[in-house]
Structure to design on (684 residues):
DNA sequence: TTGAAAGCGCTAACAG
DNA sequence: CTGTTAGCGCTTTCAA
């Protein structure tokens, strides 16, 4: 079997007996064309199975490629999947397609992906930055008219449109919810590295809630992990303290799996929990899991909308779009602390 | 602020005082070049921040675009996110990038996306087909050397490499597990439309297990839904039958949410459940959820590997790659049926 | 070791 | 209403 060449504009033109430009006109509904020519061109297009080469078109038009380059840390994380879905919804009506890659939270891979995307002349670049990545090199590209949007986390060395969850306020609300329920010793299980933006913000919200209630901030109640197993260990460690927490705030969906697994394993149904980020079966757990829900689809849509405005010529100053989180009380956050023995 | 033009090969050449071809040679390590020239070129490239235009390159070379076009029904579904991650892992080392879009299980949108991808001259096309979509029109493209791979579901009207889960055998194993536990009336909660490939296969596995055990196939124990709420209703309906099932097989992750929600709501801890497709917190539910786990990452990797072989010149006949599922007993599938009153 | 010319598939600009 | 010419940014081909 021999690879057959794909038909070009010229092939269609030859078939019909007109010039390439005429075919182009018909196809792009650019300029006038006689109904008769039109008909014959379309016929030939169908007959030959011609499909215009978008690369060639973009190139000649001089505009960027009709793609949105998106770099996320992990394609497998449903959070980023939902974000991607939101972006696609926002832009696909404008003829833009998603070009995606995973950085695996590695600045090198992120940089490589960005380079590839730039080389492809994407219309828009969206990045959920890896920890430690630098983005100063994108300045010139943004100046050249390519919108850059940071997602979930701000970038480094570049001030541009950024879409993030209300991490701090959301966590603060979650912790306040626990405090309102009578808890005074509340643990925080955060992800690593500790300098990750979302981790820092959520922990700041945790501290703010404690401060707001006049509660002391016990550094010993803050634990770290970078996977569910680690989160489970961290949970066990906190609960084994001499004066253990009566409630926990889980810093993200991955931590939550570990926290809940450990509570389930040890049969501790008396520990109140609020988890940051919603999870599918939260309502079925026992007790049902109270969460601070994020809105990843909205985040994606906002990012898409912002990018489209920039493409439309908006040169205003960079905006930070805060997408609201929402406290969803389901039970686990409403557990009262055990009666105090004093 | 005025949009500054991006530097081209010619700009670099002018800067250095050589021809464009020389710059091209240095950059692509094609043909010889003097160390001195080389140095000056690289210097100018760095100075101007030149990045070769990949579109122009692909076009001139005549080869396809360095992308893998992937169409999935729903970007937000973690299953497809994981599949995409697997594909990316497999191909990114070969210089390929993922171009993704959601069809929303709508054949029209799927077709539009495929058209866009073809127009972009993707190197590979991967599709998780929408119900009712036709793919005969891809024949010529495959003949022209573009690998086409179907994912999760076979395509229509085109025989080509296909990667699917062992839906039938997996479900059969799950149902056999329930039967081995003593269940004789087992309900099946499947997704709609009923002619969806995965639904049909899984239901066939269900029937095969019943037949294998000499159990009657009661059509009344099979229910449908297309979202969690519907699955919850379907579950309630089955359990309200005069002679209700003592065990349920949930046909996919979305159904599972509804099934478990209803069991939780009604406090029915006596109904055995096996769910097709694993879910994050399955182990924490009470009882812990027994599942037939799929392997989406492996599916993506297999698809990627198959595509790469085709790109490498493999013209062998189309293969169907069955990715094994795995029964993960966790408790809910091991519940015995209630003692029979006769 | 380097350069000049041609051309990938398409469209902008101008004629006719 | 239609055609011609030129050129997007790059690489191939051939010549120097």
């Amino acid at each position: 079997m021999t690879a057959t060449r794909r038909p070009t504009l010229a092939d269609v033109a030859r078939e019909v007996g007109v010039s390439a430009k005429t075919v182009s006109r018909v196809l792009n509904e650019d300029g006038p064309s006689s109904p008769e020519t039109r008909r014959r061109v379309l016929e030939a297009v169908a007959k030959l199975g011609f499909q215009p080469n978008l690369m060639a078109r973009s190139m000649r038009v001089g505009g960027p490629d009709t793609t949105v380059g998106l770099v996320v840390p992990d394609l497998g994380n449903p959070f980023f999947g939902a974000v991607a879905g939101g972006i696609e919804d926002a832009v696909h009506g404008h003829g833009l397609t998603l070009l995606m890659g995973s950085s695996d939270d590695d600045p090198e891979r992120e940089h490589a992906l960005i380079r590839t995307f730039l080389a492809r002349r994407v219309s828009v670049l969206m990045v959920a930055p890896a920890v430690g990545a630098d983005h100063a090199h994108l300045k010139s590209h943004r100046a050249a008219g390519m919108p850059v949007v940071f997602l979930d986390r701000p970038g480094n060395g570049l001030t541009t449109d950024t879409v993030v969850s209300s991490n701090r306020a959301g966590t603060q609300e979650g912790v306040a919810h626990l405090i309102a329920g009578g808890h005074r010793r509340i643990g925080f299980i955060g992800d690593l590295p500790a300098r990750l933006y979302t981790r820092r913000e959520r922990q700041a919200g945790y501290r703010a809630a404690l401060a707001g209630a006049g509660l002391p901030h016990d550094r010993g109640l803050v634990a770290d992990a970078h996977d569910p197993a680690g989160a489970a260990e961290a949970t066990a460690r906190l609960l084994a303290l001499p004066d253990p927490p009566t409630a926990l705030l889980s810093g993200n969906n991955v931590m939550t799996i570990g926290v809940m697994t450990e509570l389930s394993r040890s049969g501790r149904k008396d520990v109140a929990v609020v988890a940051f980020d919603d999870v599918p079966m939260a309502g079925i757990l026992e007790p049902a899991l109270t969460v601070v829900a994020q809105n990843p689809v909205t985040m994606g849509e906002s990012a898409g909308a912002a990018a489209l405005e920039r493409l439309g010529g908006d040169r205003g100053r960079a905006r930070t779009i805060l997408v609201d989180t929402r406290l969803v009380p389901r039970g686990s956050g409403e557990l009262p602390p055990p009666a105090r023995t004093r």
User: Anything to note?
Assistant: Chain A has three domains: 9-52, 67-165+296-323, 167-294+327-341.
